[in-house]
From TrEMBL:
Residues that span the membrane, as ranges: 29-50
Lineage, top ranks: Bacteria, Pseudomonadati, Bacteroidota, Cytophagia, Cytophagales
GO CC terms in record: membrane
Similarity-based family: Belongs to the short-chain dehydrogenases/reductases (SDR) family.
Domain of life, source organism: Bacteria
Record GO terms (molecular function): oxidoreductase activity
Protein name as catalogued: Short-chain dehydrogenase
Keywords of this entry: Membrane, Oxidoreductase, Transmembrane, Transmembrane helix
Keyword Glycosyltransferase belongs to the record: no
InterPro entries: NAD(P)-bd_dom_sf, SDR_fam
Organism: Adhaeribacter arboris
Amino acid sequence: MILKRPLTKLSFLSFSGIAKVAIGFTNRPVIACGYLVIIFLSGCATSIVGHSGQQKTAGKTFVIVGAASGFGRGVAEQLGTYKANVVLAVRRTDLLEEIATNIRTAGGTALVVSTDISKPEEVERLLETTLREYKKVDVCINMAGVGGIGCF
């Protein structure tokens, strides 16, 4: 799920609920991930009807936790093609330099922040770093193996 709230009440949510729904349509995880990307890029981030994914996401700031591989990486790189600001947050930043380069090459901007979201002080630092760089957060996506619902 994607959460879009006022800056004072941002929360990280995971895609687990949507993943279960998407996997209900097919037994093949790759296709299920395809459904998730379509759900994500077809209007979850905004309600503007009739605009392309690029028009919906260009200039918006997305924080993706767990973007080093799999679905998180796919979403991050797709957002780069849509000219979005993408903040990549994982524990091991060496894994993200290639992804950040791909995002920048595609026309987006990328910021790599070393973050362990199981530690509240690191989540706070992630938010502060993002706000310092982009002045806002539009969407937070948790693709990491750790998470839950909560405000920061």
